[in-house]
Structure formats: structure tokens, C-alpha cells
Amino acid sequence: MHQTIHPKILYFGTPVVLLSTLNEDGSANLAPMSSAWWLGQSCMLGMGMRSKTVENLLRERECVLNLPSADLVGAVDRLALTTGKNPVPGYKQNMTFQYIPDKFSHAGLTTAPSQDVRPPRVVECPVQLEGIVEKFHPFGAPDDFAMAIEVQIVRVHIDESILNTEKRHHIDADKWNPLIMSFCEFYGLGKNLHPSRLARVF
Ligand SMILES: Cc1cc2nc3c(=O)[nH]c(=O)nc-3n(C[C@H](O)[C@H](O)[C@H](O)COP(=O)(O)O)c2cc1C
After folding, report:
1. pTM given for the model
2. Is residue 130 part of a domain?
3. Which of 47, 49, 63 is the best mutation target for the ligand 1 pocket, counting ligand atoms within 8 Å of the beta carbon and taking the most?
4. 3-state class of 73 per DSSP?
């Protein structure tokens, strides 16, 4: 039996991304987010319109999508309720968000230079995707509260520990344990469930 309900959020489980962008003074901002999906070599990101990240992306049009594995959950959670925006927007003040100018040291994470874009990578993340913003799409009823940001991935850095031992340009899905956000709670992945027809052709 199904019931019709009115949930406040519709976060059905997506990978967590630590999105690095450049502030106007050249320092780096780092924001946890999980409204992200990929198709081909492109990615669509959903970020609140009043985030520092959207402000930075509109100006710089470059970012790095750093994907933490499940064991980095502590660092990711330290970044929750923080913003690089000063002053903190009113609605976030009500939710006890704090302005943190250096979110890398706040989280205990380390920067590494990127190759094709100016924002830095997060050393501890096994997956680091350098990206260029292609388009912005104001998004979300009723009043475009968010921005959907179309990013072209231009360089892919993968920690050797999760590479397929034979096919060096493939990630071994058995070795990759992404951090997943589902209804604001953190999860890892369970075990492989069933042989995949799709995996045979990629
Ligand atoms: C695990 C996690 C996932 C999040 N996912 C999103 C998201 O998909 N989109 C979004 O706008 N904010 C998301 N947030 C909240 C942002 O991190 C928050 O708005 C933050 O203040 C943005 O930082 P910035 O203002 O420095 O850009 C998420 C937070 C956490 C901890």
C-alpha cells in the first residue's frame, strides 16, 4: 500500500562531491554537495543560488569535482553547516551556518594544484575531476532558488588503488566505495548485487 506524502526533501541517494572553486582573492573554497549526475564527459551540478560556490563559478567558470570515498565521511561532515560567503546569508544564519574562510584546513584536507584549471584538487579524494563550466541554468520551483551548472570534465585523476589492474583506463567498481548522501544521512555502498548487462558494453 502506497501513501501520498509531502516530503521536505527528495534526496534519494547520490554521491557526495567536494567542489573546489576559486574565491575573488585567489584562495580556494570547498563545498560539499550531492546534487550531481554525469553523462558522457559532462556533469550537471545543482547548487543553491546564494552559495559562495555559485558566485565563484559565475566569475571563474572553473572547478574541481573531488569525490570522497566513504572513509572521508568525518572530513565531509566537518564542512557541513559552513559557507565561504561573508556575511552568512540570513536563511543560513538561522540554520547555524558559519563563515569559514579556509575550509581545507577546517576539514583537515590538503590541496594539490590542478593541471588544466585554477582551483585546486583535494589530495585525499580518490577521484578528482577538473571541469570547465559550459552553461548555467536557473533551476527550482517556485523562484529559481538554485543553479544547475553544466560542467565539461577536461581531466580525470584517479588514485591507483581503485584502478582496474588490467584495463588501466577503467575504475574497478569493486574497489570504489563512494560516500553517498541519502535523505541527509551518510552511507557507503553495499556489495555488488547482480551481473550487469550494461557493464559488458562499456
Ligand atoms: C553532504 C552534503 C551535501 C550537500 N549537497 C548540496 C547540494 O547538492 N546542493 C547545495 O546547494 N547544497 C548542498 N549542501 C549544502 C552546501 O554545502 C551549503 O549550502 C554550503 O554552505 C555551500 O558552501 P558555499 O556557500 O561556500 O558554496 C550539502 C551539504 C552537505 C554536507
Report:
1. 0.97
2. yes
3. 47
4. helix
